[in-house]
Specification:
This protein is of the alpha+beta class and about 350 residues long. It contains 12 helices and 12 strands. The strands form 3 sheets. It has a 7-stranded mixed beta sheet, with helices on both faces. Helix 1 runs antiparallel to helix 3, helix 1 runs parallel beside helix 4 and helix 5 crosses helix 11. The protein is rod-shaped, with a radius of gyration of 39 Å. Bound molecules: phenylalanine.
């Protein structure tokens, strides 16, 4: 055998090695790796094994160097296969051994509480600390609970104002949470001290300050000797705890068939500007409220000579709007995660 034959075997081995390593690097799953292993290192037909068989044709002086090279190539291939196998099982399917640092980090997706839900939770927790319990009622209710028991005859303009969706004669989507007042008083004797959050529905246009479905929180207190002072003091305390000690509360005369006297409650917040100066906001209406009309107490069989009470209906979406300085209510309901994800 010519000396060139040895060089020939070694050259073949090196080319095989280069090809095999490139294939190993490109392999995308363990099955491909196994195919490569069999093709190169398979005992009978593997390309490296076949090369080894040609060692017999070399001279005794040439054989050791070629044999050593063959062993080196086998070892290198074994190691490359093993490393690639480990890398694939580690991260599924990257096509490079090196980590790709340009990939965005894998962060766990984290949901956030909807800002209106958070307002409801925070409002509720303040009233809980003031001794209120939480009540609930159905979103589909009867004319009796939604209007009549609340001293609102069906031909009264107040019933028109809260026009809603009827599902059957006398059965409708509630237009406010006030029916929970009636349902609670029917079920329990006084004293009553509840808040009742829930969705309500009106035939309102969808605009920056109205949505046809919206959240409300009803509040009701009934006991002996409850006066307008309790009413005003409790709501003022709530406002200061919710928006800060400098918050002012204003009661504007209003009308609701189920309260007398009635009021719209406005708040004026103090906000701290970026330059550190304090600034008062405009008055913003957050609820309708009033002293429970004796006719309502009579409707549920309470003695209106013995008991008095006050009630409110607050809009938590408005409250959230005011809290976060959002200008358009619709943003809360369009499920844009870029918007909703900011409220952590
Ligand atoms: N139910 C009234 C509304 O939705 C609000 C309200 C509740 C007013 C309780 C007075 C007392 O407009």
């Amino acid at each position: 055998m010519l000396p060139a034959a040895r060089g020939f075997v070694i050259e073949d081995l090196r080319r095989l090695e280069a090809d095999a390593l490139a294939e190993v690097r490109a392999a995308r799953d363990p099955r491909e790796l196994e195919e490569i292993r069999v093709r190169y290192l398979g005992r009978r037909d593997g390309l490296v094994s076949r090369c080894l068989r040609r060692l017999g044709g070399l001279s005794p002086e040439e054989r050791p160097a070629a044999g050593a090279e063959a062993n080196r190539v086998k070892g290198a291939l074994d190691r490359a296969l093993e490393e690639r196998r480990a890398a694939l099982s580690r991260d599924g399917a990257s096509s490079e051994d090196e980590p790709d640092l340009t990939l965005p980090a894998r962060t766990a997706w984290q949901g956030t509480i909807h800002p209106v839900t958070r307002a409801v939770d925070d409002i509720w927790s303040i009233f809980r600390s003031l001794g209120f319990t939480r009540a609930r009622g159905p979103e589909v209710d009867t004319e009796w609970y939604n209007f009549v028991a609340l001293n609102t005859p069906l031909d009264h303009p107040a019933a028109d104002e809260q026009d809603t969706l009827y599902l059957a004669p006398g059965l409708l989507l509630r237009s406010h949470t006030s029916p929970v007042q009636i349902r609670t008083m029917e079920q329990y004797p006084p004293p009553i001290r509840i808040v009742a959050p829930g969705m309500v529905y009106r035939r309102d246009t969808y605009d920056a300050t109205h949505t046809p479905a919206f959240a409300q929180i009803e509040g009701l207190v009934v006991d002996e000797g409850v006066t307008f002072v309790d009413f005003k003091a409790t709501l003022a305390e709530f406002a200061r705890r919710f928006w800060g000690p400098g918050t002012r509360v204003r009661f504007r005369p209003s009308f609701f068939p189920f309260t007398e006297p009635s009021a719209e409650v406005d708040v004026k917040r103090i906000i701290v500007r970026e330059d550190g100066r304090e600034e008062e906001t405009d008055w913003i209406e957050i609820m309708g409220a009033g002293m429970v009309d004796p006719a309502v107490l009579d409707n549920v069989g309470y003695d209106s000579e013995q008991y008095t009470g006050w009630a409110f209906g607050m809009g938590p979406a408005r409250v959230a709007l005011l809290r976060h300085g959002v200008r358009d209510l619709r943003l809360f309901y369009e499920n844009d995660m870029r918007f909703l994800g900011q409220f952590r």
